[in-house]
What we know:
Strand content: 15-25%
Distance between the termini: 87 Å
Largest sheet: 3 strands, antiparallel
Order of helices and strands: HHEEEHHEEH
Number of domains: 2
CATH topology of the largest domain: Thiol Ester Dehydrase, Chain A
Radius of gyration: 23 Å
Number of helices: 5
Oligomer: single chain
Strand order of the largest sheet: 3-5-4
Number of strands: 5
Shape: elongated
Structural class: alpha+beta
CATH architecture of the largest domain: Roll
Amino acid sequence: MRRTIQTTSLLALVLLLFSCSSRGLNTELTSCVYPDSNRTAAPSFICDQQLDGYPITALRSLPENDQSASEASATLLNEQIAEWSALWSGDWFTDALQRQQAVLFLHNYLHEHARVIRSRTSPKNTLWLLIGVDASLDEVRALTEAALSAG
């Protein structure tokens, strides 16, 4: 009787460990849900926007509309570039002329360095994009300050 209980306990423990380890196989889709479809598993970038090689990231979304996916992606990318340019120039410079010059520099810089690094459409047809820059905020600031002092 005791041997049966030990065997049953050991089997239960092995099954429990196996079930826990098999959940980790599909963490890309099981760790979070879409904000617009909260019962549907979403890729991990929806919940955790940190991605190696892209110190600066932003999650953007656009509900279904008449644009193609590539047009919608370009719209969201351009909106994010404009948002970052205005935000950072306002944070880094107090002089109105410097802010204006910084916005222009950042806009051009970000058009070269910002990109859509992940995209997915939710079950409700919302386009979700992770937009990233391959430089840190400190690096972008140093480049911006150097460009403004040189010119």
